[in-house]
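Structure tokens please, single chain.
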Amino acid sequence: MKETITLQEVMKIVRKQVLFIMSFTLFVALVTAFISYFILQPIYEAETQLLVNQKNIDQPYIGVQQVETDLRLINTYNIIIKSPAILSKVINQLDLNVSPEILMEQITVTSANNSQVVNINVEDKQADLAVDIANTVAEVFQEEIQVLMTVDNVNILSVAKLDEEPEPVAPNKTLYIVAASLIGFILSAGFAIVVASLDTTIKTEQDIEEIIGLPIIGLISHISDGNNRRTRRE
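Here you go.
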């Protein structure tokens, strides 16, 4: 095996094995496409938003300290939204056959910096169920926060809605197929290069020229056994 291999040699190997490389790449892409379209279940997402603000919205002026207090409370609210105290009630209302821990993994709670808006995103294999969970979480939290923290500064800003033709957020079929094709190409090309590098047998006169570094000035033709027998009989 050669200790080093030049770029020209790599390209030469790839050209020789282009049929194998392209066939393997196509095979991997087709398998990935089949899995993405027929095996993996689509995941849908629904979003609802909460607004953390003053209880009395008729006040002409909202103090800066109150707004800062609301912003600090948002981090606490984000934790409470995904707590068993909230999710257990959501499970009971929707009659879900999951535990609060599993439901927690489906929910993402975020809020922009210095924003009083809290986003609740829910992912599920059923689009309508994702919408129901998102809206129920918001409603239950709005009710329970008044009991848990004795505050009434949470309002539902927007509710999740079910589209007529919901689009799944996962799996990203195009990305999976492109990534699988790239990986298949790299693996097949790498395999071809390794096999060619390990093969030290001489197959053609060009291989001899490359080894000895001298041009070939003559060839000995192959003489079959049949010709030899005829020669002896003559």
